[in-house]
Structure formats: structure tokens, C-alpha cells
């Protein structure tokens, strides 16, 4: 087995391993099916099957209309160490919108394929996914922030970022920061970075330009992203450049409203009908809440209530 692994590292390691695991998980598969799954030509698949055979993998190729490639019965790769519960947990929480935002969807699909094979002959992962769905994506459609890719590259490479950032009050500022990490909170991306004023959070959707500079930085020794986020994000209070809005929803419609407003909710009352929401500005809060009409009432702050009153009067004058 060690010889096979060394050979696979030298020759198309990822695709060859994918073919090996697909055959192990599904049994006989045609070259056409393998080609579609791996997005290559059938000729490439035939070359890869030959390479696996040369590496010592007992690949059996049956000719004819009902033929295909398979592994010698009873032969398995030595992929062990995962229990059924561990596999189920990994598969349940692996796929998510944040992963897609970061371009990791295909990697997760390949990883899931390998994990299912690791479970052995019992299809534990498939059985779990057939019975439990963990959907952590927001209800409302959303767009990936325009500069998330550049920010991600800077985080990966430990290079400073030159940002043009629109604050909650609408003022655009320019800052050069050391990007320490990205955090996805309720479907919203935040950058945790150090600038002249220390470590703070930046909402990625408000970044108007992000240029990776030639300057590099050294991350603090023992830096813990989760701990830093807890210290600097202040999840129980609005950030200084955003506004907190206390609302009360109609009891019959509260569940639907809070599902649609999930990316804004920072605290929910025990009664389930009232909550504190966070918005970049009073106008943004009023515009969002106005779409729900009389189903949602703003209790605080007064400027959002006043803005909603103005919207109501404008609409009343238009449609009277």
C-alpha cells in the first residue's frame, strides 16, 4: 500500500485517488460515468485506470455494453479511523454557503466522497444524509461580497491590505490593515484585522476596494481567531458604526419575520416576539422593516421610528 501511495503522489494524485475511491464506493462504473464525475475525457480515464493498474491496484475492466471498471472483489484501500458517528457529523455540517463563498465546494465534495469510503461497507454517511438535513444557509437570497476573494488571498498569504471602506454613517475611509482572519456570522462575512487603532472588525460587504500590497506581516504568536472574534465583535451590542434596532413582531408572523431577518438579529427576547436587530444605518433599518408593513413595530431608536413615519406618509400621499 505504501508503494501505491508513493506512485499516486507522482502521477495525477488527486484524480487517481478519486477514481479509486469512486470504484470502491460504487462498484463497477463505466468510463463515461467516471469522466462526467471528474470532468475529464474518457481517454484520460482509460489512461488513469492503466496508471492505477501499474501502481498495483487490482482494477478489472470488462468490455462490452454492460462493462466498466471495478476493483477486484474483496480489495480495499486502508482508509480507517472514523467511526459512524464521526462521519455523520462531518458530512452533516460540511456543506454550507460560506464554504461556497470561499471556493471550497468541490474540495468538500471530494472530501465527503473519501469520508463515505472510510466508513466501510456500511453506508453510514448516506443513511444519515437521507434522514437529517442541516440547512444553515439564509432564507433570503444573498450575493457574495465583491472583494471577498482578494481579502481571502491576503489572509492566506499574510500580506497587508489597502482598503477603501464605507462606514455605517456613509463616510468612505482608506486604511491599510493586517488581515488576521475571516468570520461568517449569520451569513454575513466579517474581516478581523489590525490597523492603526488596533484590532477591529470590518463588514466585507462594505469594502469598496481591497488591494493586496507587497508588505507582509507576522501574525501574533498563539493568535486565536475565535477568541479574538469574541473580544472584538461584541456580539451582544451593535458595533460603533452600526445601529441597533429593537423590534416587536406580530406573534402570528414572528417566526417568518425572524427567519427572513436572520442576518440582522443579534439578540432575541425570551417571549420570541421581540428582538434587537443590527443595521448599517437608520435608513437601511427603516427600508428593510418597512417591507413588512404593520407586522413589525420598531420600539427603539426614535430616529428609525421617525424615518418609518416619513416612509408611511410618502406612501400614503402617493397611493391616496
List keywords for this structure.
320 residues; alpha+beta; 5-stranded antiparallel beta sheet; elongated; 4-stranded antiparallel beta sheet; 4 domains; Arc Repressor Mutant, subunit A; SH3 type barrels
Structural topology:
Layout: H1 2-10, H2 13-26, H3 31-38, H4 42-54, E1 59-62, E2 68-71, H5 84-94, H6 97-101, H7 105-118, H8 124-131, H9 148-157, E3 159-166, E4 172-185, E5 188-195, E6 198-203, E7 207-216, H10 225-232, E8 243-249, H11 254-260, E9 265-268, E10 274-279, H12 282-290, E11 296-300, H13 302-319
Antiparallel strand pairs: 1-2, 3-4, 3-7, 4-5, 5-6, 8-10, 8-11, 9-10
Helix pairs in contact: 1-2, 2-4, 2-7, 3-4, 5-7, 5-8, 12-13
Number of DSSP strand runs:
11
Class inferred from helices and paired strands: alpha+beta
Determine the mean pLDDT.
Answer: 78
Helix content: 40-55%
- SSE string, helices as H and strands as E: HHHHEEHHHHHEEEEEHEHEEHEH
Distance between the termini: 79 Å
Continuous helix count: 13
CATH topology (level 3) name of the largest domain: SH3 type barrels
Spatial order of strands in the largest sheet:
6-5-4-3-7
Going by CATH, the architecture of the largest domain would be Roll
- Level-1 CATH class name of the largest domain: Mainly Beta
How many structural domains can be distinguished in the coordinates?
A: 4
Morphology call? elongated
Low-confidence stretches: 235-239
Largest sheet: 5 strands, antiparallel
Rg: 26 Å
What share of residues are in beta strands?
A: 15-25%
